[in-house]
Sequence to fold (236 residues):
Amino acid sequence: QVQLQESGPGLVKTSQTLSLTCTVSGGSISSGGYYWSWIRQHPGKGLEWIGNIYYSGSTYYNTSLKSRVTISLDTSKNQFSLKLSSVTAADTAVYYCARYDRVVVVAATINWFDPWGQGTLVTVSS
Amino acid sequence: QSVLTQPPSVSAAPGQKVTISCSGSSSNIGNNYVSWYQQLPGTAPKLLIYENNKRPSGIPDRFSGSKSGTSATLGITGPQTGDEADYYCGTWDSSLSAVVFGGGTKLTVL
Fold:
């Protein structure tokens, strides 16, 4: 079955760029039909969707983060990546990657995240 | 402040049925489908329910989901101590063009 694993620095300095990679195993990210997503969870808080990338390369971002976020695919490595620029302490969180299913049926959206990576804690500090 | 509203906590005795509510609006739950996630302590969220009421392979049938209007409900029949976790609802918000989640509900099994 498909498995995802996040990797990247656990500590990022204030104002720099946070960069994470999600490696997908057990399936190809370019096989079609799926989106690949990043979600974060601030310490002790709920889930926040960051954005998705479709297998074709089309991207969709949370408007609250859009000006700072870039999600990209590397099909040769079966990976997708997150870059978040100009980070502050407010970006300290556990970052998860996940596969995202989305279907629109008669104007209603069916969507879910499955599976998820184990998550990686990123701390932003000066 | 989450777009979807969940109670912060619920509790239940083993053998009882417990429900967790998720309240939204016509731009999200009212016109889209809901999914539910279980997050055991120290682990990543796991899909529990999708398309309002469908269970992925491997999820016990004591977990159920339903939707009515702009609210959704997760039901757990006969909760076990191993079900103590945070539970999140999620859906698409057509006005925000974004995935939205509830703030999460912590289940305690007494």
About this structure: The CA atoms of residues 10 and 107 of chain B lie 5 Å apart. The mean pLDDT of chain B is 96. The interface with chain A takes residues 2, 31-33, 35, 37, 43-47, 50-51, 56, 88, 90-92, 94, 96-104 of chain B (CB under 8 Å).
